[in-house]
Write a structure and sequence with these properties.
Elements: H1 7-14, H2 18-35, H3 38-52, H4 55-62, H5 66-73, H6 81-90
């Protein structure tokens, strides 16, 4: 019997591709701008991070507090703009206004 892969695992595997990650983040940001649901945008950042490394390693290398990052990803804390910019920068992305 063939084992199945859950959607999160599938998505994380797809997000290892840099171009796919970029499009995923762009789509998540556009969705946020339309509906104001910041939690979905933040979740998309978490998925992209997990596709590349652990949250702990990412936080350490980005100079972010690991506990705060977990709090943001668990919807217990609201991210500051500079935190979002640090995350995007560390992932190799830039925020542009069109």
């Amino acid at each position: 019997m063939k084992s199945s892969v859950n959607f999160d695992e599938y998505l994380i595997e797809k997000l290892k591709d840099k171009e796919f990650s970029k499009e995923f983040i762009n789509a998540s940001l556009e969705s946020y701008l339309e509906d104001g649901n910041a939690e979905e945008f933040v979740k998309s950042l978490e998925f992209v991070i997990k596709a590349n490394e652990s949250i702990s390693k990412f936080a350490r290398e980005a100079g972010l507090n690991r506990g705060n990052l977990y709090g943001i990803f668990n919807n217990k804390k609201k991210p500051q703009f500079d935190t979002i910019m640090t995350i995007l920068s560390r992932l190799g992305f830039k925020l542009k206004v069109a």
